[in-house]
Amino acid sequence: MSSPIPAALRNALRTGTILFVFALIGTALLAFTHDRTEPTITRGQLAAKRALLSQVLPAELYDNDLLSSQQSVPPDDLLGTRQPSTMWLARRGGEFSGVVLEAVAPDGYSGDISLLIGIDADGTVTGVRVTAHRETPGLGDYIDRAKSAWIDQFAGKSLTHPAPKHWKVAKDGGAFDARAGATITPRAVVKAVRSALDYFARHRATFVAPLPAREAKPVKEKST
Amino acid sequence: MMTMDEFRSLFHNGLIKQNTGLVQLLGLCPLLAISNNVVNALSLGLATMLVMAASSGAVSGVRHFVPNEIRIPVFVLIIAALVTVIDLAMNAFVHPLYLVLGIFIPLITTNCIVLARADAFASKNHPLHSVVDAVAMGLGLTMVLVVLGGMRELAGQGTLLSGIDLVFGEESKQFVLHVLPDYQGFLLAILPPGAFIALGLLIAAHNWQKARAERRVHAAAPMPA
Fold first, then answer.
1. What's chain A's Rg over C-alpha atoms?
2. Is the pLDDT of residue A36 over 50?
3. Taking CB atoms and an 8 Å limit, are A138 and B156 in contact across chains?
4. Would you list the domain boundaries of chain A?
5. Nearest to A15 among B70, B84, B185 (CB)
6. Which of A127, A170, B11, B145 is deepest in the core (most CB within 10 A)?
């Protein structure tokens, strides 16, 4: 019995089937690996986030689960954000005890510098960390805690300490150190921290108000 | 099975004669981008080697079932799947390092040296030979990466093995070698131009070495009448 299917078509079907089988095996392999690694990856990301938050807001300041207190913040000029950002509200014994804000310094030397700023209930900075930046390696990147302790000098500062007119780098007559050769970067960070404190002062009342309804539905994790 | 001579010639090929970084000059993008310190360079080199060994072995194993016309898509599929597996595994188990190497792990897929070895060697040879060839090629690449990373890290920030804590945890920070204490740093070496300059120096050294070896062979040979 001769096959009614022309040889070329048969060949195409054959190669197509082989390709399909390989795609199937590849997909199965990926699905399996994904299934096996996903819990570890999620756990790692949560742990990394928790560790980051605890660097800007000391753990003894709060007794709630900071990660689940996450809320979305609409874009705000004072935070330098052009897209909704996130904040985490800390409470101790049900009382508002601090907040972690995401802020952006838009005027870094090479674009945006993303910051995480912890502020306690009195409006005092508890810690600042740079979470993303593209500053020049070896020059402006000392704002990164992994490179130097420069960013630590914000802890303990508030809108009254130092006085508003000293919220500048030393070169501009302010209270904050900056290394010679790279002043644009720290200038941007100082400015961003200061306006985040302004944001805090303006919105403090809404943080303090116990709003269990708001906390009840945590915002969906932003995929970054 | 494989004779010792074959084994040696495959390694000689991968490490020196056909070194991907110095002779074939394939896959230079990750080579230049990630060689800013030893730890990054070694990690990416080993990850690439792992992908190459696995993909060459897999390609060689299925070489009789893959029609010639669709071999490239099948090879790319195999490589991409293996890279994604490694990407997920690194994300799960060495998360900090994963953050540093970032986009360059998925980009191993597009590193032409992986596909080049799969197509030029593994698709025509026994799996054992193919894996050995891939390991030798990967090792050659890793070697160049590490030397490059060492040169740039030393010239750029005066240390070696900085960032080792990203792989082995906070305690391993003690292994960071501050070769030049109180070094001010040399920015150019860390930035991309430093990668080009250092690679150029390495290639020049390799060519000089080769030319010298050839001259010696010529000198030893009897003069034609």
1. 25
2. yes
3. yes
4. 1-55, 57-216
5. B70
6. B145
